[in-house]
Amino acid sequence: AGTPGTRDDWHGLAVLVTAGGTREPIDPVRYLGNRSSGRQGVAVAVAAAERGARVRLLAANVEDAVLAEAGAHPTIRIERVGTAAELEAAASAAAAGVDVVVMAAAVADYRVDSVAEGKLRKEDTAGAPPVLRLVENPDILAGIVAARPAGQTLVGFAAETAESEEELLERGRRKRRRKGVDLLAVNAVGWAEGFETGRNTLHLIDAADELIATVGGSKREAAEGLLDAVLALRGRDET
Ligand code: CTP
Ligand code: CA
């Protein structure tokens, strides 16, 4: 890799990016999902590719229109996934061979314990609302952290609701420690914030719990700032 800020400073690096949000089926026609569009993860994939990296993008339920920019890029390989289990299988296989993992996907924490074979119908439940029993999904990032090869840089994302920036950063630091990643990108979300918009602010917390940068603007600008920080971390570890 070259000098931060130059257009090919990610040349020679292989990157795995996960984007979007997993969907956990309830029955053949319904699912539990989340509001992640995949825009921030796709922006990271495109920015890394344009800076020279080879990119594997695992897209969980990302709309075609959002994926299009990545699809047009010759050095981005896209694989679509649906559930957390599918994302886990694809991500843990792909992670082994890359220099950097950026886990931007919103992974459902729980899935429905037993998925109905046929559509759930009101006439079959005799007026009593069904109760969905949930079971916890595996922590994909934890598996990648446990299996990490030497020299691999791991980046997690955390979308948090918080009353203040102080609370946001405190939650971020706690999560960074719990996850054991080299960098955690924390952003604020809420009913009217963080989703369905082209803009984002990422607070980047490193392994020493330091807020090393706050990057943002368009999701592409946030992605570029994140990539600068990852290169800086990798340079620091080399010396
Ligand atoms: N993640 C993952 N597998 C999961 C859940 C989360 O790999 N089953 C990853 C996400 O992709 C993200 C990071 O872990 O990069 C943090 O996700 P988050 O949902 O904020 O963390 P959780 O440990 O699930 O904690 P919380 O209870 O706050 O949701
Ligand atoms: Ca979670």
Structure description:
By secondary structure, the protein is α/β, with parallel strands linked by helices. It is built from seven helices and twelve strands. Strands 5-4-1-6-9-10-11-12 form an eight-stranded mixed beta sheet, with helices on both faces. Helix 1 crosses helix 7. The radius of gyration is 18 Å and the shape is globular. It starts with 13 loop residues before the first strand and ends with a helix. The model has no long low-confidence stretch (mean pLDDT 95).
Low-confidence stretches: none
> What are the bound molecules?
cytidine-5'-triphosphate, calcium ion
The amount of helix comes to 25-40%
Number of strands: 12
Order of helices and strands, N to C?
EEEHEHEHEEHEHEHEEEH
- Strands of the widest sheet, in order across it, are 5-4-1-6-9-10-11-12
Number of helices: 7
Shape: globular
| Largest sheet geometry | 8 strands, mixed
In terms of DSSP E residues, the strand content is: 25-35%
Rg for CA atoms: 18 Å
Question: Taking all residues together, what is the mean pLDDT?
Answer: 95
Distance between the termini: 14 Å
Instruction: Determine the structural class based on helices, strands and strand pairing.
Output: alpha/beta
GO cellular component, one term: phosphopantothenoylcysteine decarboxylase complex
GO molecular function: FMN binding; metal ion binding; phosphopantothenate--cysteine ligase activity; phosphopantothenoylcysteine decarboxylase activity
Pathway: Cofactor biosynthesis; coenzyme A biosynthesis; CoA from (R)-pantothenate: step 3/5; Cofactor biosynthesis; coenzyme A biosynthesis; CoA from (R)-pantothenate: step 2/5
Keywords: Decarboxylase, Flavoprotein, FMN, Ligase, Lyase, Magnesium, Metal-binding, Multifunctional enzyme
